[in-house]
Each structure stands twice: as structure tokens, then as C-alpha cells.
Amino acid sequence: MAAPDLHMHSLVSDGLLTPAALMQQQAQAGVQIVSLTDHDSTAGLPDAEQEAAKQGIRFIPGIELSTDWHGTSVDILGYGIDYTDQRLQETLAFHRERRYSRMEKMVASCCEAGMQVSMEDIEKKVTGDTYSRPHLAAVLVEKGYAVDVADAFDRFVGSGRPCYEKKAEEMTPDEAVRTIRQAGGAAVIAHPVYYGLDEEIRVWLQRGGADGMEVYHRDHTTEDQVRYASMIEGLPLLVTGGTDYHHDSFGRKGERIGDSPLPDRCAEQLLKHLEHVRGT
Q1: Using the 8-state DSSP alphabet, how is residue 101 labeled?
Q2: Which ranges of the chain would DSSP assign to H, the alpha helix?
Q3: What confidence tens digit (pLDDT) does each residue in 61-76 have?
Q4: Under a CB-based contact definition with an 8 Å cutoff, are residues 29 and 137 in contact?
Q5: Three-state SS for 232?
Q6: What is the end-to-end Cα distance of the chain in Å, rounded?
Q7: What are 88-128's pLDDT values in tens digits?
Q8: Residue 100 lies in a domain
């Protein structure tokens, strides 16, 4: 059996597989506990949950919410959410609109940099309801401006790069946590190594700002894992992790189905926590 994977994306946000196909491939790889965590959308969860049941996989409904922490983009993962919750869906619809506006600005920046890119090009890549940077990156690759998606991020659309645009009117991390908890879920800070905010995150977690941290991520080195595990040691917090899978063609190290670094005990702890929250 492969390790549990609690972080992955389907074509509903910025992955390339349908939710059902993603679950089928997880089963083929021997993954037994999974969570689909598309960006700012739950549209893929019903199909993924149904297929996971067929495949004998333990499925945790999830999401990855975009937030802003004093000018830094920080993602918050939500696990065990009731994806039919009306307040949750209203919040997600609002923020998907912000994603579309952001994409328009990034496309304009690409054009200003001399690259011939249009929103029509992006729309051909978007198969779900969420506009994300990998869609733009794929267009840049297709048009020959980048070698692959990773190259497009490194040179054009990654944070701080020439065509990067911060999303407007984002939730704060606290607002994202409230949204997730109101929908019956557990809120976990995603891939903290991306932010350079270790001390701020430490204080936030100590005061109960979230329910856990993604200690095991494809971009966390062994040293990172040790550092983040020690940061929350002794606190009643969840430890999660996964491949942050989008598709094999993205070419990012560690982003392969079946390669999750998460220990089984951490996924089991999450499942027990969610059972307690639901009172089952």
C-alpha cells in the first residue's frame, strides 16, 4: 500500500485529471486514504467521493482556500467539510470571481511583456470553474514561451515574477479557518515552507488559529519536516501532507501519484478528529 495522500487537484481547479480518473489512479497506486483539495471549489467532490467508494478508498472531502496574510499569499486546507453548506458555497463563488479578475491582469502583464496570450487561450485550458496559474503556465508552454510548467512558474507567473498578480479581496487565514469550521471541517495550513512566515505561523497555531499543519509536502525537505513537526510538538494539532498532485506532465519533483510522504498514523489521526467533530 502507498502512503495516504491528503493534497491533490483535479481538472476542476488546476489539475488535468477528472475527479473520478484521479481516484482510479490513486487506487491503482495502492493509496488507501485520500482527500481531493481543489482550489476554492468543491465541484469535483461528489464524483471523487463516489469513485473512491467504488475503489474501496477512504475519502475525505477537502478544499484549498486562498488567503492573504499581510501581503503574503497563504493557502489553508479544509478537511471533512460539508460541501453542500450554503455559506461555504456563497463564499467560494465570490472568491472564484476574484480569481477570474486576477487572471485577466496576469494575461495583460504577459501581453505587456511581449507574449501573445489572451483570455480565450486560458478559457480553453479551464475545464472546471476555477482559473489558476497552471492554466496560464500551460498556455505559455503551448505557445513556446516556456519549456514546461515549472519553467513558466520560475520565469513568469511564480510569486514575485513579472506576470504574477496578487489576488484582490482575499480572505484572511482566520476567515478561511472560520469558513472551514462552519462547514464542519478541520483547517490546516498548507505547505508552510512557501511563505517565510515560520514565527508568525508558530504564534498563530499556538493561539488556536488552525487545527493543524501540512508538515509532509512534496517541497518539504527532511529538515523542513523536522522543523515543522517540532514547531507544533506538544500542541493538540493535526499533521497532514501529500503530493500536491496536479499531473505527471507538470514535471515537479515528488508530484507523482503514490509518492506521498505522509505517515499512515497522521491520516488516521485526522479521520479520528473528524469523527469526533461529527459526533460519530
Answers
A1: H
A2: 19-28, 45-55, 86-112, 119-125, 133-142, 149-152, 173-182, 198-206, 222-231, 264-278
A3: 999 998 989 888 899 9
A4: no
A5: coil
A6: 27
A7: 999 998 888 888 888 999 999 999 999 999 999 999 988 77
A8: yes
d(CA 25, CA 69): 35
Is residue 98 domain-resident? yes
Helix 86-112 × helix 133-142 angle, to 10°: 30
The CATH number linked to 116 is 1.10.150
- Residue given cell 482510479 in the structure block: 24
Q: Taking a C-beta distance cutoff of 8 angstroms, is the pair 3, 264 a contact?
A: yes
C-alpha cell recorded at residue 215: 508538515
Residue of 38, 35, 40 lying closest to 88 (CA atoms)? 40
Write out the three cell numbers for 139.
498556455
Is residue 149 a part of any domain in this protein? yes
The pTM of this model reads 0.83
User: 206 is written with which cell numbers?
Assistant: 499556538
Beta carbons of 52 and 38 less than 8 angstroms apart: no
Whether residue 19 lies inside any domain: the answer is: no
C-alpha cell at 264: 499512515
> What is the rounded distance in angstroms from the CA atom of residue 105 to the CA atom of residue 92?
20
Alpha carbon distance 272, 274 (integer Å): 5
Residue 108 backbone phi and psi in degrees, to 5: -65, -40
Provide the 3-class DSSP secondary structure of residue 18: coil
Cell of 113: 511583456
Residue 133 CA to residue 174 CA, distance in Å, equals 24
- The domain total for the chain is 1
Q: List the 238-242 sheet strands across, edge first.
A: 33-36, 58-69, 72-79, 186-189, 212-217, 238-242
- Tell me which residue range forms the domain holding 98: 93-157
**Cβ contact 29:60 at 8 Å:** no
Which residue, 28, 9, 29, 27, is CA-closest to 19? 9
